[in-house]
Write a structure and sequence with these properties.
FAD/NAD(P)-binding domain; alpha/beta; FAD/NAD-bd_sf; 365 residues; signal; binds flavin-adenine dinucleotide; six-stranded mixed beta sheet; Flavin-dependent dehydrogenase
């Protein structure tokens, strides 16, 4: 039977645009509905793909190009990872991943993706899901906001996170990323620094909004983190711009597809709870939804591994939350040298192995 496929994509972010590119490659031109004025119309931030968390894929850039014809130009690759705890530090070297730019910048990933498309993007869209459902044969929910998913189906929230970040000026190695695992700076969370260039970087702290943590003095926490970054880097860093994200939802949708509606990106549950990374799974879910619509795969089956990764990642999160600063010191000092390098550069799936060990201990189903 021949019928006309009409696809609406709600959201011109990573997952929605990856979906559109894949549909176009297969001869379907979707219509994209974007709430904002332009693609990537939000604060500019730096994000990373860390290869230890995307195994067996070690190089996401070549993976997306060679398997799905999606081109990503990263800001740079990551050669060094410096990890600081309260009293210890370690340095890990290798091909550790990539830095990407997001948001309101012409080189952001979302802008790179939109340039790979012919499809029409309707900006300032106020169309609701219900309206699109009436007009289109297939609807892709790609709003980057799990709260939208929970209007349509059950979204199993694991935690919400507060994030605060700043752009800083100083001297940086553009291939080196830093992370701080210290409950005094980011309770049960972590802080990080990602360089944009040799002169500019971004620092961020992120921590879960658990009871007890909710009562902390956020400004004091931020001040302490900023001072610690200056101390660790032995520099007086100048803040040029700041952002805050509240109630960032991390969870997993109950079902990836209802009828001809597909939930992709954060609406699927792409943000992995361990460190809050979601770019890899967001792009993949967009691609997988398109492949299903084109008759080249089954979305539920294709996303099964990502759901398992989510659960493994949640077990790792529950595991790391058990560590006080003394244990974090031990963990960080243990990563120094060959052990850390072997762990980060091995072909083994860290999430799967870590999840297998920690899921029973942390009672993560
Ligand atoms: C501060 C921060 C740091 C992060 N760091 C990392 C990192 O280092 N590594 C990593 O892998 N991940 C990171 N993530 C997570 C990653 O950014 C997300 O998982 C990913 O961007 C989600 O892609 P998406 O397509 O679901 O949503 P997005 O890329 O956010 O796109 C959603 C789009 O939908 C639009 N929209 C919203 N509502 C509507 C509507 N009603 N109608 C139409 N359009 C709508 C939005 O305007 C937006 O354009 C970070 C997230 C944050 C907030």
């Amino acid at each position: 039977m021949v019928f006309l496929i009409k696809v609406a994509i709600m959201g011109a972010g990573l997952s929605g645009l990856a979906c559109a590119i894949t549909l176009e490659q297969n001869g379907i031109i979707p219509t994209i509905f974007e709430k904002r004025e332009v693609v990537g119309d939000r604060f500019v931030n730096l994000e990373i793909f860390l290869s230890i968390l995307t195994k067996p894929v070690t190089d996401v850039i070549s993976f997306f190009t060679e398997n799905y014809g999606i081109i990503i130009h990263p800001v740079s690759n990551i050669k060094n990872l410096h990890i600081y705890s309260e009293n210890e530090k370690s340095k890990i070297q290798g091909n550790l991943g990539f830095i990407s730019l997001r948001g309101r910048d012409s080189d952001s990933l979302e802008n790179q993706f939109s340039r790979q498309l012919k499809s029409k993007i309707i900006f300032n869209s106020k169309h609701t899901y219900e309206e699109l459902l009436q007009e289109y044969t297939h609807v892709i929910i790609a709003t980057g906001d799990a709260a939208y998913t929970s209007k349509i189906q059950v979204f199993n929230e694991s935690l919400t996170v507060s994030l605060r970040g700043a752009t800083i000026e100083g001297d940086f190695d553009k291939y080196s990323v830093c992370a701080w695992l210290n409950n005094k700076l980011a309770p049960k969370g972590y802080g990080y620094l990602i360089p944009l260039s040799e002169k500019e970087a971004q620092i961020v702290i992120g921590y879960p909004d658990y009871n007890g943590i909710k009562n902390i003095n956020e400004d004091q926490l931020w001040e302490n983190f900023y001072k610690e970054v200056c101390t660790s880097l032995e520099q007086d860093l100048r803040i040029t711009d700041q952002f805050k994200v509240k109630n960032y939802i991390i969870g997993l949708c109950n079902t990836p597809r209802i009828g001809n509606t597909f939930f992709v990106g954060n609406c699927f549950g792409s943000v992995m709870p361990f460190l809050g990374f979601g770019q890899f799974a967001s792009i993949l879910t967009g691609i997988y939804a398109a492949l299903d619509i084109c008759g080249k795969g089954n979305y539920e089956q294709l996303t099964h591994k990502l759901r398992e990764s989510y659960k493994n990642s949640l077990a790792l999160r529950r595991g790391i939350e058990l560590l006080d600063n003394k244990k974090l010191d031990l963990f960080v000092s243990g990563l120094e040298g060959k052990l850390g390098e072997r762990l980060f550069n091995s072909k083994y799936d860290f999430l799967r192995i870590g999840g297998a060990i920690l899921r029973p201990i942390t009672k993560t189903k």
